[in-house]
Amino acid sequence: MKKITSTLLISSVLALAATSVSAGTLETVKSKGHVQCGVSTGLAGFSNADASGNWQGLDVDVCRAVAAAVLGDATKVKFTPLTAKERFTALQSGEIDILSRNTTWTLTRDGSLGLNFAGVNYYDGQGFMVSKAIGVKSALELDGAAVCLQSGTTTELNLADYFSANGMTYKSINYDTSDATIKGFEAGRCDMLTSDQSQLYSLRIKLENPSSAIVLPEVISKEPLGPVVRQGDDEWFNIVRWSLNAMINAEELGLTSANIDSMKTKSPAIERFVGGQGGKLGIDDAWSYNIIKQVGNYGESFEANVGLDTPLAIARGLNDLWSRGGIMYAPPIR
Amino acid sequence: MSELETVQKPSNPAVWNNPKYRALFFQALLIAGLVYFFYSVVDNTLSNMESRGISTGFGFLTEKAGFGILQSLVQFNEDSSYGRTFIVGLVNTGLVAVLGIFMATLLGFGMGVARLSNNWLVAKLATVYIEIFRNIPLLLQIFFWYFAVLAGLPSARNSMSLGLGIEFNVRGLYLPGPVAEPGFLITVVAFIIGFIALLFMRQWARKRQDETGQQFPVGWSSLILLIGFPLVVFWASGMPMSIEYPVLKGFNFAGGIAVVPELLALVLALTIYTGAFIAETVRAGILAVDHGQTEASLALGLKRGQLMKLVIIPQAMRVIIPPLTSQYLNLTKNSSLATAIGYPDLVNVFMGTTLNQTGQAIEITAMTMAVYLTASLLISSVMNWYNKKMAIVER
Lengths: 334, 395
Description:
The complex is a heterodimer. Chain A is α/β, with parallel strands linked by helices.
């Protein structure tokens, strides 16, 4: 009898656990008072903890924006560092509320993992970094090369496609972490390192002598990176999507964390933006104001974390607003 | 008295009071409970995954993988299936385990005996080796052999030539590889014949010694049969084999046999780490044999070599084998640390890349766990069989 009781007990606990996970993420976040955000294990400019343990970066700002929108306080975020391998399982199992970790949006990931991509916060592409010493100017001269890369990413598939399309061969050494990858490259285990271009710049500054390596001009793939949420929770999906959209729209409207108070009534569009219409998303009307006031617009976040004045020195390029020649474009808030 | 006896005798009890049926009933209940428990866990998982839109099943195994693997002993390219990546990973894990077990056993036995040596220097060196490598975490040792040693090696263009066409550089160890030409099959057949003849010869020699007491030079005859005979055949058939030397082509060496540094570092670390434990096991086994055995054998006029081979080792093996089995199991399971340095073993390839490309976490993790479980049980049963063979046979 004892067995049966315990069996019943265990299965009812499991059933309970199942229901609590499928309860709305918004309610869960509100009741626990913070957003649990999955980030990388340390990628300068995107998600990286500073000396005192504060997370900073472009991907981190997305989580902060969501916290500002939902809880009214951008600091109410807790971070879970995840490797490329762990990230989807952590989100599927409900360990984190948002995955904001330079993750490429692909059909397979969207369709078969039970996840939804809420938008794109960085348009990236895969590139190559080689040591200056081997004197290569183009990726097409790399036939027979050894390649270091981090496993568990879209990188491996793009690499295989690119080399077979150009009739070249390669040997890939797949490391677990980006640290091991850069160490292998530095030790000369491979002729080149391949990754998303943004990461190449961030990895290059980890080299003992960053100027000893160059990033080749070729971009061999499309890598739209963006925040990810669990499928089937449309309310939360909308909140994450529109938190990101609000940041992009604010840049277009010229609203920054510094001027939003004085600009409040400048134009109908700005009034609508600050008015927020949060009720339609199930959150407070001040959500958009909070995001811009506490986190800043997309351009501010970009310049502060990866822009030309940072060690990464990445130009806006594709990630500039559509009105300035880039492809950053957010649907209007109205 | 007789009256009392009849009273004490239990009357035919009711079914629910019969201890036999009661025990059966409760065992059946327990099994039913367990079955229901596992059923509900699996069912719950499946329905939860379905409600979240996560696809399940093993259909992914036939899909095209589309990525490259550094080292594969079986045919593999970017067009192969995910199922194939499983095989590649499995074979690579097997390779590390077999090489590691073989070399760790040699090193361990050598060091174990050396630590008992009468030579002060040899004994102390063995002690230092054991105490250092037994007490440093394995992962650190793997990193050491990989990153520290790798960084010190020359680049492919300034490769270190070790003579005989062997090249050693940061990209790995390149050995001249034999290439069989038509007619080489005869030599292979000769080798097989030599091996079979060797088995018969050993049986015959043992029988003869049992019957007549005369000894036959088994060692030398084995060498002649196993190596000499095929060599003669190889020479007589016109030496149908060429040797391919590795040459620098573009960025890397091509041709010959290439051993990637990841494999070198991993096997080295596993060998040195496990060897230290095996050495202690061997030392314990030898010390467990009573000194009286040595004295008795010497008194009977056995030589030192015979004493070891015929008296000490067979008795020590009984003590050594059970803990040795554990070390073999540890080595096999520890080989999964390969993923830290990018050696394409099962965990790196299948539970790493394949899992990430397909997202089938539960299926892939279950398959990987099943592999390690099967491998461990296999090693364990082989060693148990060997143990039984070596155990004292009571007459």
